[in-house]
User: Fold these one by one.
Assistant:
Number 1:
Amino acid sequence: MCASEFAPLAKTGGLGDVTAALSAYLHRSGHDVRVLLPFYSSIKTDELNIYPVDFMQGVEVSLGAHSFRCDFYVTALPKDGTPVYLLHCPALYHRAGIYTGGADEHLRFIMLNRMVFEMCQRMGWAPDILHCNDWHTALVPLYQKAVYDWDTLFSRSRSLFSIHNIGYQGTVGTSAISELGLAGKESLLHQQDFASGQINFMRTGILYADVVATVSPTYAREIQTAEYGMGMEEILRARDSSTIGILNGVDYDDWSPQADSLIPRNYDIDDIEGKEVNKQVLMREMGLEYRPGVPLIGLVARLTGQKGLDLVAEVIPALLKRRDFSFVALGSGEGRYADFFSELQRRFPGRVCFYSGYNNKLAHMIEAGADMFLMPSAYEPCGLNQMYSLKYGTIPIVRKTGGLADSVQLFDPSSGTGTGIVFRDYNNEGLWWAIDAALTLYQDKDAWSTMMANAMAMDFSWDKQGAEYVRLYRAMLRSKN
Ligand code: ADP
Ligand code: GLC
């Protein structure tokens, strides 16, 4: 399993949650899973026992004109024992954050892709499945087929490329070609991209992986269209028979109101008053005025256009004037959205609070303390927060796209079925309707309790979703030539 993120060591969003929880599932099911992750200087090491792997020290690697020295370390996650190999290369990974957006970003991840093979060779160990994730590890399938094809160690290995977000493709100018180290096989790169001066990591992964997966069935279909494919639609259509959508799971040890150690009071469906306690503590700590019967809407997100924040900026200020509710937002990312939320807090003191930054404890407290969770995404490959919200009885207000469409069902008061509020069209009217409907429904105590009970009963555990991956891995191994 290789990826740029792996929770809790390195996480900016759901990618880290998913690589960690799937690996943990595989590990506890008895599979031999070994994770490779850059040893970012931001990884907190105090609670980890980290050992150098003695036969994997001082590995010299040249990427084009650049030479690096790498050392491998290994640790077992305290929580579940999953083995994680850490790729130590200070020249590349001792930076302020996981991602830098800098001119050598591609080098940082080319190295990771190459080291998958260098590590396995040194261990004399070939995985059945090379599972790579997003553009940062999308070169693994090509490297297997073009650079390490001489090594029979890997002849039985199959590659799976998981797309968590097609919005980040990893592109670099063709002048970086020598840094890829393709050993005379450069013509395997997508020629049209190349002609237009680009190397696109994501497209390379889609082209060469034995199987392409994405994180929900609906997103698997959506990215084959021009509306959602971001230029990858054609090649994804061409690979349709080797593409699959598997909905992400949730790690309920971390994310359930019964077990969560980061919230003031644990609760469950039979002890729902506990939720109100969480709401009071959250509102007090965030400087919001608690008034019984007035709903609190929460939002936790990377602040980017993907999350529907342009609609939020258009709709929430007007709604705050028209209806009685409070709003708490947590996020980091683009300044224009942070500015919007800061301004909103200033305009509606006591009713709106914005925490700018990354704060895991607060994310848990919002899931537990809010009545509703807002996720009006423009696109959403899977989305985890809406699934967390369901378990916490925090009614998700979502747009019908990607994994949101696959995990939240519109509540129907006449039949009492459904788990949240779902709107279809990405426009102000759609979002207005959805929030307005949620606020109205909140006043109908019976309907609201039914919807909460339906939501909390949903089960997206990794025991279910992980089994789907194992079925896929096995099918991949059966189909090998
Ligand atoms: P994405 O991967 O697109 O960011 P997901 O819904 O799949 O969206 O996952 C987001 C994950 O990141 C969740 O675990 C969420 O709690 C977490 N998260 C996002 N922003 C923050 C933040 N500012 N502070 C703490 N956790 C955050
Ligand atoms: C991405 C997507 C999100 C998904 C996560 C984990 O960052 O934006 O929808 O849940 O990856 O797969």
Number 2:
Amino acid sequence: MPAARRSRSLAFAASLAACGGAPSTPADTTSVASTTSVTAFTPEEVAAAQKEQDQRMAWWREARFGMFVHWGLYAIPAGAWNGATHHGEWIRDTARIPLQEYDQLQAQWNPTAFDADAWAQLAAAAGMKYLVLTSKHHDGFCLYPSGFTDWDVAGSKNGRDIVGELARACAKHGVKFCTYHSIMDWHHPDYLPRRPWEAATRSTDGADFRRFESYLHAQVTEIVQRYRPAVMWFDGEWESTWTHQHGLRLWSLCRALAPEMIVNNRVDVHRAGMNGFSMAEGALGDFHTPEQEIPANGLPGQDWESCMTMNGHWGWNAADGTWKTTTALLHNLIDIASKGGNYLLNVGPRADGTFPPEAVERLQGIAAWMKVCGEAIHGTTASVFDPLPWGRCTVKANGDTTTLYFHVFDWPRDGQFVLPAFANEIVGNPRLLGGAEPGLLFALGDAIPTGTVNVPATPPLPHANVIAVRVKGSPQPFRAPLVVADGDTFVGAMAVRLRANGPDGEVRYTLDGSEPGAASPRAGDAIPLTATTRLRAQTFAGGTRPVGAAIDRTFTKLEPLPPTKQRATQPGLRVERFAGDFSKVPDDLDARQAEATTTTPTIALPANVGERVLLRHRGVLAVPKDGLYHFVLTSDDGSVLRLDGQTVVDHDGLHGPTEKRGTIALMAGDHTFDLVWFNRTGGATLALQWHAHGAKPAAIDAAALRH
Ligand code: H79
């Protein structure tokens, strides 16, 4: 998945637009253009908007941990319908329940054991600083009495205002109350589109999406004015009817209603797939929302929150026993905090209003840990070190000192904890949270004030143990040397540069596979490579002590493949079509008989290519000059690109529309081209781009393809 490239300023244009006046009326489509014409803002205006965003995000950035609550009518069937037990909050869709049948759940809504105070107390004790409740999920049912629909708790036999009770309970327990409100709505007659499976039976006659937008704005206004949520968490924005203009109007409404309210990025349409990272410049929202995943390297410089379930479902599913352990949940929290994000951990309450005991047990386990180690989570920022093999690090600045919290997942059995290297002076004794005081001895390593901490052989806490080290100033970690190289493969020769990454230190390297030592050559000028070479490098503090992570990279010299002798005079590629239930490219394709053969001028799927189909594009690719060529292959489902019989990109298997890259060295001239693609069911995508090393990817021009 590509990392998001977005400055935090994404929300500025719109927040400035919103400052300019009242939000536009949704039905008034003529005003849209003027609302969205984002003209140039002065640097002062941008700085003011940035400051405003920083102010409203301040508590959220400190919080690091929140509770998600998915609750609604779907808790009544608890995941089971017609014998299947895998459903969740999507049950009306996944079990294809007709509206009239689903409507009957409203009469059964009767959460007699709902105790808002108990929920808020559990969240507070677990160190969760905010709670996000589904005021409305995709099924459209509202957990509060809405003035704009009867499809709400007020229309059930138990009229309790769940949102109101929980908002008050959260306030009492010092937990910020927030609401999740789905844009997608499977109940409102004006919402479009219908679910594909109900399109024939649920008429869209008279449906008007502009009226739905008015309804959505009315409900958001109602919720904000009545319950003052600290965060408005939108979702279900990915359907075709929701546009950036709709997002801008909803964002502007929120900004005008409650300038201090935080709004997630799902208000707008620019997420890349379901992973929750806004990709486009100008995408709205205060924070990114990766779902069920933790970005491998965080999203440096940006605000993000990973929402994740405790088992495999958001809504209550009685059959789901796949509960993550308390250790796994805490490691997620620590991992996310160490990458600078927030963790929004879900609970799916049961229909009677109680949390499942498995969830309570885990929350209590987390609470016990947080009681001792909460200071290592709350108010911290991302690690400054290279990935640590034994755990994670969080950082907290306090005036002119900084506390480094080392969260140890794998406790050193020999009682010797080796600190990651940094150049700061340590203040006082390291602390083992939850351990006996003073407890720790500290041994200086060389001239650099880092080294080994003596720790008890048995740590005090389950799940993870935290060693807190206070240092002077801001952290100065030693990190792996920076490698400046133009890729990992080359033709002919290439140059690689090494640079120290951090405080004073020497970078030393080897090219023969041996471990770099204090006597290895010191990096200075560019290192020329003329053959495949393994480069190993390390920073040495004081000239002798290896510090930070080591570099171990192989640069591969490729010999360009000679052109084929195959004659190809016809323009375009030959396309063979095969029928079959493929889940991967079959090995025996050469032996199979195509059911049809056509030609194509460029690589593009025919309209309505269909399902259970495989297309094989063959011919030659004319390469303009000797060199490295990179290929970007996007497909849904699988595809494999071969040139001159060599696999260049293997993007095989069943998957959604994702891209994969590959590199090959080619001499000028024709090369045999063989691109296989298949679709089992659902979406069908195929695109191939290429570029010479150093150039930008582009589609393959028809002039380069013959057969
Ligand atoms: O509210 C939770 C989910 O219901 C919602 N976002 C989180 C916070 C969400 N909506 N859509 N998705 C997540 C992704 C869509 C997944 C789907 Fe499926 C795959 C929809 C249908 C197939 C998951 C699996 C839901 C039903 C089956």
Number 3:
Amino acid sequence: MGKMFPELKSSEVITRYNGGEPVLSKVDMPFEADCIFNAGVIKYQEKYIMAFRNDYDYNEEKQNFRKCMIGLAYSEDGKQWEVQKEPFLTAADLNDPEITRLYDPRLTVIEDKCYLCFAVDTKHGIRGGIAVTEDFKTIEILSMTAPDNRNMVLFPEKINGRYVRLERPFPVYSRGGMDRFDTWMSFSYDMRYWGDTKLLLAVEDIPFANDKIGPGAPPIKTKAGWLTLFHTVDIDKSREKNGWESCWQKRYCAGIMLLDLEDPSKIIGLSKEPLLAPETKWEAEEGFRTHVIFPGGMILEEDGEVKIYYGASDTVECMATAQLDDLIALCKPV
Ligand code: BMA
């Protein structure tokens, strides 16, 4: 048993759906599955669509999974999900022998098209990709980053004529070989060529992170600004065995911030406390890893309710809700 994690609590504005039970897990799958998590979610043509990650075929010796793919689920209400029988995407579908694994999908609708951001492991580093689809049957890859980069999320509209994305490059050499990774952003006129790259949020800006941070759910537009979730990691070397791995010393939380509508490189509000911290059985006690909340989707409903989707402990997908005004109020001026 590992040492206790020093306490971090979720914000009072959060209500976990169904007492924190998963909205989707391996028991819902029509195909081989072990861990269903880190999903992207959108509302598209009157339906909710979820693209989720499925890690399966566990290798005891290496303590990892031999296989990984992205599946799809559809819902009328964002709570009850029906899983498509055929997997949506695997690394092999990308027709690039360099790519060995495909994971962590995020979805954004822009001008009636669905954009999928994803991470791939390649023989020469980890890359972030952007693809577009209108039918979830065929996709076109529009852009791939240089390694190492991942956790990309897109804003749902162009801002001053440019597409905008948040991303998390991970420089190792210049950071002393350790994790110390921040959230950056880039701009594009055509979704293919990205530049004007800027640092947005650094680890030291977050009192409850000491290791790395990265984009979480794609931003939603509100009167107060672009509201977006990010993930944060604190590491404690005294933590021992947690979950299935022999040693897991990190804790992942979700944080929240507001960006300026006209100039999203300006943070206008930020919560100095976690929005969601691992507390329930699924988040803190069970699974492949423990103490992981990995937000990937946020939907604003017409009545002001916000649905937040997050992977719990790299094992199941959960959902929480909050009121938009309460979330905005958490983002204190910086
Ligand atoms: C990150 C990514 C995520 C994962 C998280 C916690 O580095 O690999 O896919 O959910 O770690 O294990």
Number 4:
Amino acid sequence: MKRVLVIGAAGQIGSELSAALWNHCGSAAVLATDIRDPATWGGRTEAQRLDCLDRGALARAVRDFRADTIFHLAAILSASAEANPLLAWRVNMDGLLNVLRVAAAHRCRVFAPSSIAAFGPEAPRDPTPQTTVQRPSTMYGVTKVAGELLCDYYHARYGVDARGLRFPGLISYRTPPGGGTTDYAIEIFHAALATGRYNCFLRADTRLDMMYMPDATRAVIELMEAAPEPLRHRNAFNVTAMQFTPAELAREIRRHIAEFRIDYNPDPVRQAIADSWPDRLDDSEARAQWGWRHRYDLPRMATAMMRGLARTMTHDRGRLQAMTESAGR
Ligand code: NAD
Ligand code: AKB
């Protein structure tokens, strides 16, 4: 992993993973790309516009940058995919296929994430085993299962060193989330700080699996650095860090902002998606095969989110000041 190409680098994971790779591999070693114009998102790394559906442009970027590893993060997430299933199929499947074909031709390694969405209502919920019935009921989930299998196929058939993680909902504050169902767990912090109230689009008792972004970017790098021999589930490792319901997250936020109030107005589409997903993944295989360990639990994540947002949000300085003081106690 000496020269890396990041696709979907303007997104929630891509923006933070690009920065982590910049620190890990060195300043000249990361080319960050996205379909969006880099003028609107570019940071420290070299950045350019790239549509993963354009295989010729993708191959040229890999060749010209002499990339040896591709981090493929471009996708349409769960709620957006239900709104536009055909676009989700195209971006999530054709985009991944282009990445794998270019990787095979240019002898690149690939990281492509899967999701808790790869499981459907027939899978055991708590815990959801590493290997079990999947049968997702969303278009996003269908593309995630197919993506896991496609990566396995390119590894077995063409020797592409493709690896992947089944991420739970990821929580972060630097870049807004991109149209998922777990987005409520980010919106709630922004709303708590901005207005002290949040109108939640999921039911109070909807338990979902979650992880704080620094654990997620570290997991990606650790998986890509792991010795290949022990990796028996290379493209679909369950990983997890914490599980909570909106009511439990609201209670945690009240430890920082005592007057915080939450209302519940479930959105039928996102509620149905959440109801079809696991409560908690069993990540014992990731722990055994490459040493995965999470560092952030719910209280630690909430404190980090409060402090991080307090630094980045500029409105309502009085509330932020009070919150920062209480978060520090
Ligand atoms: P995101 O929506 O925040 O970012 C995706 C990025 O891809 C966006 O910046 C978008 O502009 C870009 N993009 C869209 N179409 C493109 C195209 N044709 N070519 C190039 N770029 C394109 O998503 P994210 O949350 O960063 O997710 C990244 C990956 O991680 C996805 O595969 C997603 O399924 C997976 N994942 C995310 C989460 C999470 O909670 N964020 C959880 C599980 C899995
Ligand atoms: C989504 O909600 O779509 C994503 C995911 C869990 O894959 N955050």
